[in-house]
Amino acid sequence: MTKPAILFVCLGNICRSPLAEAAFRKAADAAGLDAIADSAGTAAYHVGSAPDPRSIDTAQKHGIDIRHYRGRQLENADFTRFTHIFAVDHENLRNILAAEPSDGMAKIALLMDCVKGREGAAIADPYYDGEEHFGPTWEDVDAAATALVATLKSGAA
Ligand code: 4NP
After folding, report:
1. Which of 47, 72, 83, 154 is the most exposed place for a label (fewest CB within 10 A)?
2. Choosing from 78, 125, 140, 142, which is the catalytic residue?
3. 98 to each of 5, 32, 58, 93, 124, how far by Cα in Å?
4. pLDDT tens digit string along 25-42?
């Protein structure tokens, strides 16, 4: 089996996708899954920035330090370096598919498609909302990360 290499993509790469990456790293570690994980944004607004402080606090609540993560924009090489690219919502999924180069190899899907019963769901953008919206964001990305790790462990992805 090729080592799984998973890229989580949101708009700014400072709120949702860093949390998805963190949740996935934690779930993969716990399950003993050897996988590569990263995150990126479809937009360039926050290239080089640390995650949003509310995401840093949310990850910290779950024992994960993401202060060293830095925003970056999705790039062509991601479509061959990663085995899977997951979008947090439909707009980002559309933009990822539109940016896919002709030699792209990665499977591209909506992140919540990983969760039975939540297929097709978007993870809401918490950026313009209050801190209380980051808890539900964590619940979503953590459910997806846990399900994804189980699928990868079973060799079904
Ligand atoms: P994210 O949230 O896509 O989950 O990182 C956002 C972060 C920044 C902006 C929008 C959404 N922004 O417009 O700057």
Report:
1. 154
2. 125
3. 21, 34, 31, 9, 21
4. 999 999 999 999 999 999
